Amino acid sequence: MMMMIARTRTWMATAHLSDAVIERCLQLAAWSAVTTLALITLFILREGMPVVFDRGPMAFLGDVRWAPTRGHFGLLPMIAGTAVVTAGALLIGLPLGLAGAITLAELAPMKARLVLKPMIELLAGIPSVVYGFIGMEILVPFIRERGTLGGPGYSALAASIILGIMVLPTIIGISIDALEAVPKSYRDGSRALGATQWQTITGVVLPAARSGIVAAVILGMGRAVGETMAVIMVAGNAVQFPGSLLAPVRTLTANIALEMSYATGAHARALFATGIVLFIVSLSLNAIAGRVRSGKRASFA
Amino acid sequence: MTDKIQVRGLDLFYGTFQGLKQITVSFPARQITALIGPSGCGKSTLLRCLNRMNDLVAGVKITGTVMLDDADIYAPGTDVESLRRRVGMVFQRPNPFPLSVFDNVAYGPRLHGERNPVTLRAIVNDSLQAVGLLGVEGVGLGQPALSLSGEQQQRLCIARALATAPDVLLMDEPCSALDPIATAGIEALMQTLVARYTIVIVTHNMAQAMRASHRTGFMLLGELVEIGATERIFASASDERTRDYLAGTFG
Ligand SMILES: Nc1ncnc2c1ncn2[C@@H]1O[C@H](COP(=O)(O)OP(=O)(O)OP(=O)(O)O)[C@@H](O)[C@H]1O
Ligand SMILES: [Mg+2]
Fold it and tell me: What does the alpha-carbon distance between residue B111 and residue B91 come to, in Å, rounded to a whole number?
């Protein structure tokens, strides 16, 4: 009897011990992620801030000339390029994504959902260079050779379309979660008042899921702002204010990726300053999306 | 006493499971009929047949007739949306939409094409008045409906159903999520509403059926065992199964 109790004790002790070890490992993993983020932030700031202090922020944010070897560090063309391309991507991705999410979450029969949802998730797994490749081979020539469009083909339009497709998995996935989180009792209540299915979707389901959908759009935006490779391949990358959708543009990400390999001195640090701008935009978008989503979750409870 | 609803030979199948068996029953106009019976006996199912909410369940099959006034609501070509406007429903848990009080009550009339703000305002006021929410402190028209108390939410849901000008109100355990005081409030409200509406209520609360209804029907395993004046059912039910059930739940 005593033996058994003693044995159970040691068994429990080892169980506790292994629990503790696992807990430690998980903590370590969590902290290393946080630390990595902190180190990246520090690194970018350390490399980029001196040149910002040196020349003043207006040298970056108030100048349209980017010629780092000759002392011009204006990021405005790239900021505008990123803005145009992102807005274009949302203009394409938002209606398509929302339509897709509504179809999948509300309208499609169960069987179709089981096939379509994994396919959309697959879309997120395609490497961005493949999107860029398709854009170069099909989209760019298409834009160039259509009489009504014209231009070099490498353009803000091409980048917007490619990005519009690339943000779909983000927008659709998160919107579906938001739509599925809407309680069935809302739908029943609406139908019982004589609403059709479509009236129920527009009258109750979408308003109830609104903040989740807003979060989806903001995260999609973050994805568009941060995308690099596919954009470089189709945007043309000329440093100029985007005067037309058919003209080439350069985004912030492209600016860094294209020049980092050979930049030295102030030029390299100016690229880090580009990184700071990008970093702030991305983190803000994520923070806003997080806020919007958690606010909603609290109100359903 | 005219019958508002007459159900004849109603069978309902969920797939292969028969949820309702040969239900024949009438609901007199401007009376409260209570449906009682053990869990899973088909009370909600029967109620949901009366506004065709069961149509929304996949794999459901319904035969028999349900006459509302003089028309069979299961006849081909029936406009189900306008049927549901005439037969309002209140659910077990208050389910106001996450919109303002005004938008909740105006939801039904807007669906059915009412756009005039003056008319909408009048409908909302009348409906809130009817359920005793008009001018209540903390229940402004612009207030989010989800910020109301449980009882106020349930009253709002009743107002929302009244706003489409129904003849019939179906209530599926409307007080089961409320405390006794709120329950008494809703029961009192039913007594005022019954002057204008035909009410069918499902309840698990025998005392509620006894207090609040004119007629009581007892269901068991998908059958309507018996139905009659509430005092008679509770004092001297004619079917042994009813007597056993009432003895069991009270004893
Ligand atoms: N959507 C459905 N699909 C399949 N079976 C169902 C469905 N809804 C109800 N049922 C079955 O039909 C029977 C009657 O259900 P119903 O909800 O009408 O019972 P109830 O008397 O209202 O019970 P309760 O008092 O628990 O609300 C139950 O056996 C239930 O399992
Ligand atoms: Mg029920």
Answer: 20
Cβ-contact A201, A279 below 8 angstroms: no
Whole-angstrom distance, CA of residue B123 vs CA of residue B9:
38
Contact across the interface for B161 and A193, Cβ inside 8 Å: yes
Can you say whether the dihedral through the CA atoms of A132, A135, A138, A142 is positive or negative?
Answer: negative
Residue type, B99: L
Q: Provide the 3-class DSSP secondary structure of residue B24.
A: strand
- List the residue whose alpha carbon is closest to atom 26 of ligand 1: B39
Lowest mean pLDDT among A141-145, A287-291, B147-151, B158-162: A287-291
CB within 8 Å: A299 and B98? yes
What is the distance in angstroms between the CA of the first residue and the CA of the last residue of chain B? 35
Residues in chain B within 8 Å Cβ distance of A192: 51, 53, 84, 88-89, 91, 161
The pLDDT confidence band at residue A301, using thresholds 50, 70 and 90, is very low
**A162 domain-assigned:** yes
In a domain, A265, yes or no: yes
CB B42 within 8 A of CB B17: no
Predicted ipTM? 0.91
Say how many domains are in chain A.
Answer: 1
Considering the four listed CATH numbers 3.40.50.300, 1.10.10.10, 3.40.50.720, 3.40.1400.10, the one that applies to the domain covering B3-95+167-246 is 3.40.50.300
Map out the domains of chain B as residue ranges. 3-95+167-246
Per the domain annotation, does A291 fall within a domain?
yes
Residue A184 with chain B: CB contacts under 8 Å = none
The pLDDT tens digits of the residues spanning A144-203 come to: 887 677 788 899 999 999 999 999 999 999 999 999 999 999 999 999 999 999 999 999
CA distance B227 to chain A (A): 26
Residue B204 CB neighbours (<10 A): 15
Q: How confident is the model at residue A11 (pLDDT cuts 50, 70, 90)?
A: low
Instruction: Express each pLDDT in A80-110 by its tens digit.
Output: 999 999 999 999 999 999 999 999 999 988 8
pTM: 0.83
Give the residue-averaged pLDDT of A233-242: 91
Given CB atoms, is B37 within the 8 Å cutoff of chain A?
Answer: no
Q: State the residue range of the domain holding A223.
A: 76-300
Work out the minimum CA distance from B157 to partner chain A, whole angstroms: 9
User: Contact B112/A194, CB-based, under 8 Å?
Assistant: yes
Which CATH number goes with the domain that contains A283?
1.10.3720.10
Would you mind telling me the total number of residues written for chain B in this entry? Answer: 251
Within-domain flag for A91: yes
